[in-house]
Amino acid sequence: MLIRPIAHSDLDTLYQIAVESGPGFTSLMPDREALTRKIEHSVASFNRTVSTPENEHYLFVLEDEVTGEIMGTTGIEAAVGHDHPLYHFHRNTVTHHSRDLGLRHSVETLSRCNHYSGCSEICSLYLRPEFRRPNAGKLLSRVRFLFMGLHPERFADTVIAEMRGVSDDEGRSPFWDWMQAHFVDMEFAEVTRLISSGNTDFIEELMPSHPLYTCLLSPEAQSVLSEVHEKTRPALHMLKSEGFRHKGYVDLFDGGPTVECKLSGIRSVQESEHWSVEIDRAPTNDFQKRSRTQFDSPLLVTNTETAGFRATVLNDAITRAGSRTLFLTPAQAEQLNLQNGSVCRVLPLTSQSRTMPAPKEHTRAEVSYAHQS
To answer: What is the pTM (predicted TM-score) of this model?
Structure first.
């Protein structure tokens, strides 16, 4: 499995993924022209020199290195709300109190806001069902955090993820059914199409701007507030393990939760380390053999490039005891665009391998990274 930036030649497969992912997956809609623009935007973003995040969009694909087939996608928006407002409802509690009557009553409201404007957003994670295999989902999810940790100047301090809300197999959302009946007479599929194309004017024109009392929503709409689609639960669980938390902001259209975390507080950013690469040569004596240590669990390994970014998962990775040196075969080094002596980024994918060998010394790249973080 190999992670790389998306290329123009991936359009057909990206369109197929947009079809497979189904209604409600607004970051990838089955529109070839829109997907072509998305790829062009991503390619330009990877090649752009950036000191402050703006409207860059980074889209990655997961490739089967044997067959060349695209297994899935994953992406990052550098600064949401840059070109179009990003709206949410915020769940608040309002208390009404009459001192004369001695009565007090608290009610929950939904208030429209654009609280997360300027934050970075992880998005577009989709693993095709026929390619589900060990560590594929972890690779798609966690590689984004390593890329962001490597290039913090390209991203905001706060990272968010909008989780897909509850909808049925036909794409009907209980939350939107209520909104449609009272405010915007459009089908959910049409709404998601407008949002994916960047058309948000109807939100200001038609969506409620004053607080809504949630007790007035239908029971079906109330029951799905802050809940996620069944297929999204594993992704939410993984984000929670990274440190993401829900703080009451929900999607305007399906009521799904948005979760957030500081970039510097994301577990994968904190636990990944810079290591040096040594192209593997077979040990020639017992001392060299004894100095090697094999990890019992997989490692996520990336290079440190931007447009040439590559990442993979290595099973049975080998290091030199007491160092931050990773042995790679010539084929692995070529796959990751790494040379002898290059710096890579390493992250253990399971807790049992979290304790890494202590480094003998820091490379210049490691010292520079520490200052950036």
So the answer is: 0.84
* CA–CA gap between residue 344 and residue 299 (Å, rounded): 12
Q: Is 94 helix (H, G, I), strand (E, B) or coil?
A: strand
If we measure between CA atoms, which residue out of 144, 103, 125 comes closest to residue 242?
144
Asked whether 328 and 262 are in contact (CB, 8 A), the reply is no
Identify the active-site residue in 57, 88, 151, 229: 229
Residue 76 is classified by DSSP as E
How crowded is residue 276: how many other Cβ atoms within 10 Å of its Cβ? 19
Question: What confidence tens digit (pLDDT) does each residue in 245-254 have?
Answer: 999 999 999 9
Token duo for residue 173: 């959302």
Pull the structure tokens for residue 112.
């429209």
Helices (H) and strands (E) in the chain, counts: 12, 17
Compute the distance between CA of residue 355 and CA of residue 331 in angstroms, rounded to an integer.
27
* CA 146/CA 275 separation, integer angstroms: 13
Read off the tokens for 152. Answer: 């913090």
Contacts of 115 (CB under 8 A, 6+ apart): 88, 90, 249
Report whether pLDDT(205) > 90: no
Burial (CB count <10 Å: 0-12, 13-18, 19+), residue 357: middle
Query: Is the four-CA dihedral 193, 198, 200, 202 of positive or negative sign?
Result: negative
- Residue 229 is among the residues annotated as catalytic for this protein: yes
**Residue 295 token pair:** 């990890």
Residue 49 pairs in a beta bridge with: none
Single-letter amino acid, residue 361: E
Residue 332, C-beta contacts closer than 8 angstroms, at least 6 positions apart: 312, 314
Q: Rounded CA gap, 7 and 31, in Å?
A: 17
Give residue-wise pLDDT tens across range 5-35. 999 999 999 999 888 876 656 677 778 998 9
Measured on CA atoms in the order 343, 79, 83, 171, is the torsion positive or negative?
Answer: positive
The answer to whether the CB of 249 falls within 8 A of the CB of 89 is yes
Cβ atoms of 2 and 72 within 8 Å: the answer is no
Beta-carbon count within 10 A of 246 CB: 19
Can you tell me the distance from the alpha carbon of 247 to that of 158, in angstroms, rounded to the nearest whole number?
Answer: 13
Burial 141-160 (b: 16+ CB within 10 A, else e): bbbbbbbbbbbbebbbeebb
Closest by Cα among 113, 132, 100, 150 to 251: 113
